[in-house]
Amino acid sequence: MTKVFSIANQKGGVGKTTTTVNLGAGLARLGVSTLIIDLDAQANATSALGIEKRTGGSLYRVLHGEGSAIDQIVNTTTKHLDIIPSEIDLAAIESELAQAEGFLGKLRTALKPIIDSGKYQAIIIDCPPALGVLSMSALAASDHLLVALQTEYLAMEGLGQILGVVDQLKDAQATSSLTIGGIIMTMYDVRTNLSRQVVDEVKKHFPALVLASYIPRSIRLSEAPSHGKTIFDYDIHSPGAAAYEALAKEVKKRFAL
After folding, report:
1. Could you tell me the end-to-end alpha-carbon distance of the chain, in angstroms, rounded to an integer?
2. Looking at residue 103, what DSSP letter applies?
3. Is 90 exceeded by the pLDDT of residue 184?
């Protein structure tokens, strides 16, 4: 059975795309057939996997009812890992979709043929860094929300907001299946009291949600996307690779993938 995950945070620069790409690659390395969907018009996940951005390559037209999402799937160099790329046209979808009837269900409808095919055990959606129409549609189409949370106090301010959006979507009956699957602590620096204090604070409020695998602040993780490589292809012996391998194992077990 396919499980659909959204990795989201309305704050940019928290390691959301890095986590999407490397968690996806980590799951694929464990033999979990995985599809990444790049819903961010900046197309950072697309570039990070070494995929060329091209006009018409995203879900833009599919969300307008033209064509099939299956036809937009592109293979990556990692076995068991595919992607539906992004393109700049997705930036326009925010205003265009908001005017359409039932816009929150359009992504779920678009993904149904892929889910029904049974080809993928996991679908991971990289959401834009804002709680707009695309992010809300992604959440409505997902089974689980994974929040990428940078270990600093400013990042914590938005945590309650994005968790509140889940309740709003359920109240609006836009989703019945969405759960808060977990909080992934990113850019963790074991040398600083701040990182430990933020983790402790989040754990105090959400003890069951904080995943045990913390993602370290790492130059190698920052460098890998500019080479179009996952951390496993760029530096498999780095602490970042070890962290994402551990996270993938934890997610695989937690969600029975």
Report:
1. 8
2. G
3. yes
- CA–CA distance, 90 with 96 (Å, rounded to integer): 10
Count of beta carbons in the 10 Å neighbourhood of residue 235: 18
Question: What is the rounded CA–CA span in Å between residue 243 and residue 249?
Answer: 10
- In Å, how far from its chain's centre is CA 169? 18
Cβ distance 106 to 100 under 8 Å? yes
Q: pLDDT class for 13, splitting at 50, 70, 90?
A: low
d(CA 191, CA 193): 7
Nearest CA to 83 out of 136, 31, 115, 126 is that of 126
Q: What is the pLDDT of residue 165?
A: 86
Interstrand relation of 179-186 and 74-75 (parallel, antiparallel or unpaired):
unpaired
∠ CA 42-231-115, rounded to 5°: 60
CB 210 within 8 A of CB 232: no
Residue range 86-125, pLDDT digits in tens: 999 888 888 887 777 788 899 999 999 999 999 999 999 9
CATH numbers and ranges of domains, the chain = 3-254 (3.40.50.300)
The answer on pLDDT for 42 being more than 70 is yes
